[in-house]
User: Which sequence fits this backbone?
């Protein structure tokens, strides 16, 4: 299937299933994906090895964001969320904490009611500066696609070492002050069958929800083109069953079909 990249530093605003009218910020290259995951469902496709990696400078990000927010305010365009996602993992940016500081200041000036959201795969929360940056924003949306190691590796295809147990241990240190996000799907990739909606998968995942006590859970499924073709999105019924189990635990949950 065709996938797409974000070719601008600031893009949108676009309507997000989870975040409303969302202004996107891409801290990564505009011509290629740059991530430490190669998720089977990623709308940006796969990492392309080689070539020079140019990341936007902190001051350029702040300037571009301020200009865009000025434009939106003058045009009467509402902003519900300033969202850091883009062409890969945003916390890879070496000035991530500083960018978050700038964003809070600029947001407060133009759209003080807008939320600042970071969509992250949670791989860098062992880094103190990354955590400090995340704690400055309103929504720390941290991903865990499976609580079972072999399934997580099959879905997320990490570049380098990745241990679910290590990530869960780090999430527990956040004392529940984050949103847990999970993509549910089924499919076949390179002869391997993937399904993170089976009974054992869901029970293990619910165990992580219990252990980490996130303030909110977001579950969703495939909505756009993916780099792997033989994938099936979760049905409404499948997501509803999982969501009800979370509600029974007393945890707030949102579902995007």
Assistant:
């Amino acid at each position: 299937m065709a996938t797409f990249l974000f070719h601008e530093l600031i893009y949108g605003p676009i309507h997000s299933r989870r975040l409303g009218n969302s202004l996107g910020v891409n801290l990564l290259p505009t011509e290629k994906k740059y991530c430490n995951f190669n998720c089977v469902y990623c709308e940006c496709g796969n990492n392309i090895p080689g070539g020079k990696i140019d990341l936007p400078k902190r001051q350029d990000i702040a300037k571009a964001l301020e200009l865009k927010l000025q434009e939106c305010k003058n045009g009467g365009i509402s902003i519900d969320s300033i969202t850091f996602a883009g062409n890969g993992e945003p916390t890879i940016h070496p000035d991530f904490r500083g960018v978050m500081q700038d964003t809070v200041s600029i947001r407060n000036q133009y759209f003080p009611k807008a939320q600042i959201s970071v969509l992250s795969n949670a791989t860098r929360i062992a880094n103190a500066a990354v955590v400090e940056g995340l704690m400055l924003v309103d929504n720390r949306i941290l991903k865990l696609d499976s609580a079972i190691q072999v399934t997580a590796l099959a879905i997320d295809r990490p570049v380098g070492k990745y241990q679910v147990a290590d990530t869960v241990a780090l999430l527990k240190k956040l004392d529940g002050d984050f949103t847990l996000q999970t993509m549910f799907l089924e499919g076949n990739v390179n002869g391997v069958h993937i399904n993170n909606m089976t009974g054992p998968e869901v029970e293990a995942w619910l165990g992580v929800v219990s252990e980490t006590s996130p303030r909110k859970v977001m579950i969703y499924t495939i909505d756009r083109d993916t780099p792997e073709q033989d994938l099936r999105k979760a049905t409404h019924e499948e997501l509803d069953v999982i969501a009800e189990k979370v509600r029974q635990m007393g945890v707030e949950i949102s579902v995007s079909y």
